Automatic annotation (TrEMBL):
Keywords: GTP-binding, Hydrolase, Metal-binding, Nucleotide-binding, One-carbon metabolism, Zinc
Oligomeric form and interacting partners: Homopolymer.
UniProt: Zn(2+) binding residues: C111, H114, C182
Superkingdom of the source species: Bacteria
PROSITE patterns in the record: GTP_CYCLOHYDROL_1_1, GTP_CYCLOHYDROL_1_2
Taxonomic source organism: Flavobacterium hiemivividum
GO BP of this protein: one-carbon metabolic process; tetrahydrobiopterin biosynthetic process; tetrahydrofolate biosynthetic process
Top enzyme category: hydrolase
Designated name of the protein: GTP cyclohydrolase 1
SUPFAM superfamilies hit by this protein: Tetrahydrobiopterin biosynthesis enzymes-like
EC number: 3.5.4.16
Catalytic activity: GTP + H2O = 7,8-dihydroneopterin 3'-triphosphate + formate + H(+)
NCBIfam families: folE (TIGR00063), PRK09347.1-1 (NF006824), PRK09347.1-2 (NF006825), PRK09347.1-3 (NF006826)
Amino acid sequence: MKHNEEIHDEIGENHIGSCATNPLRKDAFDITDDEKIESIKKDVESILITLGMDLTDDSLKGTPNRVAKMFVKEIFGGLNPARKPKASTFDNNYKYGEMLVEKNIIVYSTCEHHLLPIIGRAHVAYISNGRVIGLSKMNRIVEYYSKRPQVQERLTMQIVQELQNALGTEDVACVIDAKHLCVNSRGISDIESSTVTSEFGGKFKETQARREFLDYIKLDTKF
């Protein structure tokens, strides 16, 4: 019989996500960013000391503070709803009715199972039903949901759901192709493999639209 720790390790190794939203506690934002930084700083100090590192060394003195600030303000900054980009939309005055594709959006995220980087590209598309969104906003939405402990499946779904809500249409698609350093740099240590995830809504569930989208992004993958 497996112990809970073994079960949890197995879940993490297989990249199983527990839910479609990031699992946050209700009190996640009861303390300020500065208070979080101070608390995390102490935790990082403890980890480094436990590992045997000499924190009096000039190279390591500032590491706990640097890591804490990075966690709160950078790589996990997307957890804070106050940083959510405003997804302004506009009337489709051009009456453009074909799909719009924004491809090769850089993804920098962090695997929630090992806290190691996920690095890749997102390809996003939508078909307007009367509203359009600024191109840079699509990049910002990808960035916002990437900046948190993630699993790639959830990230893909969140990007599509956010654009569907902003544009008022189900006709949104996203494909992400990314490398997971928890696979590439540890465990099996397969430096060549990458992970592809997709979410297709509305018309993109139809074969023709899906194939057109995949042809635009030149991804030789069957779904």
